[in-house]
């Protein structure tokens, strides 16, 4: 069974950066795209971007362009999402999700990022 | 990219059918047959229920079905059960090769 295991909860001050990891197992990591999606408390899902785990190509939502960087380490079957210049509105649960084509077929458990002074 | 529009809430009694709409534009829902639907219980990760408008992943009940007409996609839940009470989100591929989610619908089983 495909598994995506994310790193633990983070607390950051405004202006700082956060890097969340997503380790994949039981499938060939480099064959698929990994997406990042976030959900603020009580709010809807919001797509942030994707990375082609094979060639490293990325695509970001215009909303986060310039603040988000998605990378991967193929040797560790792990994708990373780094968000900079954090503000209180970035407090959310961040999910990674594997692409099954044009949909998200498997999801990580989510990582809560709290931005607070 | 604006969010796809869904009704905030839909409710039904056990055994009834309900339909959730998802309205986009000619740059997303209307342009491609790449609409998917997700079920999310409180505090949990979303779960894929429908992909490519009307396909069900293995293990998803056949009480869930999807369709599309123009810029609006729909998810129908037949024979509503208590376990179906959750939030539901649609998502679409877009002409910019990005993805967009819907505003979300809370389903209540009366």
Description:
The complex is a heterodimer of chains A (117) and B (110). Chain A is mainly β and 117 residues long. Helices cover 0% and strands 53% of the residues of chain A. Chain A contains no helices and eleven strands. Chain A is globular, with a radius of gyration of 13 Å. The termini of chain A are far apart. Chain B is globular, with a radius of gyration of 13 Å. In chain B, strand 7 and strand 8 form a beta hairpin. The N and C termini of chain B lie far apart (35 Å). At the A-B interface, strand 5 and strand 10 of A face strand 3, strand 7 and strand 8 of B.
Short synopsis of the structure:
The complex is a heterodimer of chains A (117) and B (110). In chain A, 0% of the residues lie in helices and 53% in strands.
What is the topology?
The complex is a heterodimer of chains A (117) and B (110).
Chain A: E1 3-6, E2 10-12, E3 18-25, E4 33-39, E5 45-52, E6 58-60, E7 68-73, E8 78-83, E9 92-99, E10 104-107, E11 111-115
Parallel strand pairs in A: 2-11
Antiparallel strand pairs in A: 1-3, 3-8, 4-5, 4-9, 5-6, 7-8, 9-10, 9-11
Chain B: E1 9-12, E2 18-23, E3 35-40, E4 47-50, E5 64-69, E6 72-77, E7 86-93, E8 99-101, E9 105-109
Parallel strand pairs in B: 1-9
Antiparallel strand pairs in B: 2-6, 3-4, 3-7, 5-6, 7-8, 7-9
Residue-averaged pLDDT of chain A, rounded? Answer: 97
Q: What's the shape of chain B?
A: globular
Structural class of chain B: mainly beta
What is the N-to-C order of secondary-structure elements of chain B (H for helix, E for strand)?
A: EEEEEEEEE
User: What about the largest sheet of chain B?
Assistant: 6 strands, mixed
Regions of chain A with pLDDT < 50 over 5+ consecutive residues? none
Structural class of chain A: mainly beta
The main sheet of chain A comes to: 7 strands, mixed
Task: Note the beta-strand portion of chain A.
Answer: over 45%
Low-confidence runs of chain B (pLDDT<50, min 5 residues)? none
Question: C-alpha Rg of chain A, in Å?
Answer: 13 Å
Gross morphology of chain A is globular
Number-wise, the strands of chain A total 11
Quaternary structure? heterodimer
The helix content of chain B is under 10%
Helical content band of chain A: under 10%
Strand content of chain B: 35-45%
- Separation, N- and C-terminal Cα atoms of chain B: 35 Å
Radius of gyration of chain B: 13 Å
- Please, what is the average pLDDT of chain B? 97
């Amino acid at each position: 069974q495909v598994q995506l295991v994310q790193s633990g909860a983070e607390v950051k001050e405004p202006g700082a950066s956060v890097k969340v990891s997503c380790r994949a197992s039981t499938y060939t990591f480099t064959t698929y795209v990994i997406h990042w999606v976030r959900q603020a408390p009580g709010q809807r899902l919001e797509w942030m971007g994707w990375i082609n785990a094979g060639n490293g190509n990325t695509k970001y939502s215009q909303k986060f362009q310039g603040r988000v960087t998605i990378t991967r380490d193929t040797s560790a079957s792990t994708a990373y999402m780094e968000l900079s210049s954090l503000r209180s509105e970035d407090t959310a649960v961040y999910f990674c999700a594997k692409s099954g084509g044009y949909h998200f077929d498997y999801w990580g458990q989510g990582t809560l990022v709290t931005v607070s002074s | 990219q604006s969010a796809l529009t869904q009704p905030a809430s839909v409710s039904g009694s056990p055994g009834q059918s309900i339909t959730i709409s998802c309205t986009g534009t000619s740059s997303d829902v209307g342009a491609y047959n790449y609409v998917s639907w997700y079920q999310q219980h409180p505090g949990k990760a979303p779960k894929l229920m429908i992909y490519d408008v009307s396909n069900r992943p293995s293990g998803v009940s056949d009480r869930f079905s999807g369709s599309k007409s123009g810029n609006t996609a729909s998810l129908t839940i037949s024979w509503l059960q208590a376990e179906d009470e959750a939030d539901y989100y649609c998502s679409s591929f877009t002409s910019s090769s990005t993805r967009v989610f819907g505003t979300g619908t809370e389903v209540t089983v009366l």
